[in-house]
Specification:
The chain has 450 residues and is an alpha/beta fold. The protein has 15 helices and 19 strands. Helices cover 36% and strands 19% of the residues. The structure holds flavin-adenine dinucleotide.
Length: 450
Amino acid sequence: MKTKRPIIIGGGAAGLSAAWTLRKRGIKAILFEANDRLGGRLGGDRMDGFFLDEGADFFCSSYDVAFRICQELGLPLIRSDMNLGWYRNGQWIKTTPIKSFGALIRNLPALWKLGLLSAGFLKLARAVKTESEYLNFASDSRIIELDGEENAGDYLKRIGLPESLKTTLRGFLEMTMGDVDQMGAAYMRTYIAEMLLKADQIYVPEKGAGELSHALADACGADIRTSMPVRRVVIQDGSVTGVLTDDGLIEADAVICATSASKAPDIIPDLPNKVLRVLGKVRYSRGCRVVIGLDAPPLPPGWHGALYPEDDTPLLLDRSINLPACVPPGKSTLDLLVGRDRAEELFPLDDQEIKRKLLADVRRNPPPGSNLPGDEEGLFTRVYRWKEAVCMGLPGMFKEVVEMRRQLNRDLKNLFLAGDYMRVPSVNGALASGVDAAEEVVELFEARPV
Ligand SMILES: Cc1cc2nc3c(=O)[nH]c(=O)nc-3n(C[C@H](O)[C@H](O)[C@H](O)COP(=O)(O)OP(=O)(O)OC[C@H]3O[C@@H](n4cnc5c(N)ncnc54)[C@H](O)[C@@H]3O)c2cc1C
């Protein structure tokens, strides 16, 4: 009997989890990745004993698929405490995770200064807590039931938060997620529920999130072809017959397109109009990350990160504080992260220039007692430019994606889309979408044996 051949396009979290799911069902896929490395936005860079996250760097408490896959692959997870400094109104405020009544009392002055004890925040926290059954990143999340037309900026205005709290929340969200005035209100509330209200339940593989990509690539048993972009998916008589690469036509019985939403129409221009319309509405934030290898911790003792929610000064992280296995003994790293227009301005510059500019931004108001590197210092410098960073879950996206998927299933029986935008955008959403697509391929193959 001829073996059925599935092809996966894209070796990010979605594509790799699809390959792993097929492998568990005894099916070997061919996986094409345009870049020379796998992982996409979940990439993990390894050098001289350092393990660096190129994109995603933490998992929230509802990442059910991520936790399951880590367990299947024997990848240990550790809890990562958010010991953060916040620069507000010309002073530094330090918060620690609130795990006990004592910790709450100790954090009260800081919470007050950040506006997190205001009536507005307590109202928001209560609403988000009540909705937590709907608002989470899990594979069975019911976010769609609360997905409306309102964006996050309008939501924050409508519920009447004090200015100081709005600055804290906007700054925090925009540093990581992109433009609050574009992001959907339901998606933003999910992020607040998981990041602020469950800040003591953040997990990371002990050598960084990117190690999950390496583990998946090693275990998925796919025929992986890196530096091999798929140029076009070939469709004949309503069915996919193969993909065109620089090596020619490769025949396929099913194709999973696990690229970002913006790339899919370029390689599958024959998608139904309704599908193209929804894909065209998916938006991503931008981001630029600089990682510097160091001989000593750059932040004040015990600080894991420092944020500047009032402007575009980069978010600072020292991952060696929470993840000592990420660095050789005695070493540290400094991550500098910016988003939005600031990231866009930096993209064309060379690595050294980007490092210089971001360090100059931070030197204006450095955390007290910090030991930041000079422009020419560092064991190494790595720069990751993300023109598409985090999918922003625009208002109404979740409902439209469900409808789009139905339409695609009706029109093209052996083509499947995967990627973070197909679920609640996150590493977990991307992994879950890959599992979904792979299960659909299995169902198709079982329904139509050769
Ligand atoms: C800086 C940053 C920080 C983040 N932090 C977090 C976090 O802490 N937690 C979290 O949950 N999420 C985070 N995210 C988001 C998370 O990384 C993504 O949601 C997730 O990794 C997306 O996976 P994906 O497989 O859907 O897409 P991608 O990772 O984008 O994978 C798509 C792959 O397809 C490949 N491709 C594209 N076109 C072609 C083609 N024609 N042929 C072959 N291959 C092609 C691409 O090269 C890419 O490798 C972060 C993202 C960034 C950038």
